[in-house]
Amino acid sequence: MINNAGKMARKKSKILKSAWLITWEWCGRHSKPGADKIISIFNYRKTSKFIKEFIEEYYCSTFYSHAEKLALAAMNKKNPYPAIYVEIKGVPYEGQIICGSNPSIYGRKVRNLQILDNNRNKKKITWEEIPWSTISKYCL
Fold first, then answer.
1. Which of 3, 13, 27, 40 sits a CA distance of 20 to 30 A from 33?
2. Contact 35/122 with Cβ under 8 angstroms?
3. What is the CB neighbour count within 10 angstroms for residue 89?
4. Can you tell me the distance from the alpha carbon of 105 to that of 14, in angstroms, rounded to the nearest whole number?
């Protein structure tokens, strides 16, 4: 897009004021997944139960063998890495979910998620994490 001065204008992206963001998290280069850090983005209206099931299934489909998947489907084996809600002061908080070891999947609600375009076809996704101080007041 070209503005009146003949300069390339930055394309504005849609900002999601609230969204579920699902990402890979890891410690050390040895455990970095080969894929993009961002796994998925969901509408904030999706339930925490839906997000928890998605995260667990995604982790399972990425790391488990066919035999392990079959055992889980047959319900005769417990999942070694179930998705769980993060606990704050001993209370499960449904706005943050983790699954796995290293690497793990981290799903949480974020604010102001958007894609920035720097006019060189390089796009960057930015978001704001919800501060623990804001979250913890709901877990008293």
1. 13
2. no
3. 8
4. 25
Query: What pTM was estimated for this model as a whole?
Result: 0.80
Helix (H, G, I), strand (E, B) or coil at 120: coil
Query: By C-alpha distance, which of 24, 21, 55 is closest to 37?
Result: 24
Task: Name residue 41's beta-bridge partners.
Answer: 21
Residue (of 119, 127, 128, 120) closest to 12 by Cα position: 119
Q: How far apart are CA 66 and CA 68, in angstroms?
A: 5
Write the CB contacts of 123 (distance below 8 Å, at least 6 apart in sequence). Answer: 115, 116, 117
Q: Which residues are CB-neighbours of 51 under 8 A, at least 6 positions away?
A: 20, 22, 42, 97, 107
Q: Please determine, for residue 44, whether its predicted confidence score (pLDDT) is greater than 70.
A: yes
First-to-last alpha carbon distance for the chain, in angstroms, is 50
* Distances from the Cα of 39 to the Cα of 30, 32, 72, 137, angstroms: 19, 13, 23, 29
